[in-house]
Amino acid sequence: MENFVISILVTNRSGVLTRVSSMFTRRGFNIDTLTVGETESPEFSRITVTHRGDKAVCEQIVKQLEKMYDVQKVQVMQRDTTVARELLLIKVKHFSEQRQDIMSIADVFRAKIIDFSQQALVIELQGATSKINAFIELLKPYGILEMCRTGLVALERGGNCLKD
User: Fold this and answer.
1) Is 3 exposed, middle or buried, given 0-12, 13-18 or 19+ CB atoms closer than 10 A?
2) Are 62 and 46 in the same domain?
3) What confidence score (pLDDT) does residue 164 get?
4) What's the number of domains the chain is made of?
5) Tens of pLDDT along 63-78?
């Protein structure tokens, strides 16, 4: 099984995200991550979906998406020509004897401590999914209280744009 990143340019109006995500459900396709937001033009939104499957399933997803009325363009992002990032906010238990260890881990990963209290630290990290996963694994022994991930966002390198 491969991981696919699919970028979808859609009309920015009510119900479009529901229709797109419902298409996945109706066809029995799983969404691993889903990120959506307005583009540089307020009339369009960009949906980024990650999906694990084989190439035939990915091609079927693209065909189904391209048939949808509000979908302007669909592109499977190629790993070698794509810039992809994810954002993580993670709250870790904080004891004074562990503070330096946690701060050292954050420093190695170039993470930022964005909230500091006597009971917990909130740390922000952005990067590739593998980097996020490795960071989480290193912090597990300290006690993760809470975490939130954005899902992947991706753009093609160079001058090509999804709207072209």
Assistant:
1) middle
2) yes
3) 56
4) 2
5) 999 999 999 999 999 9
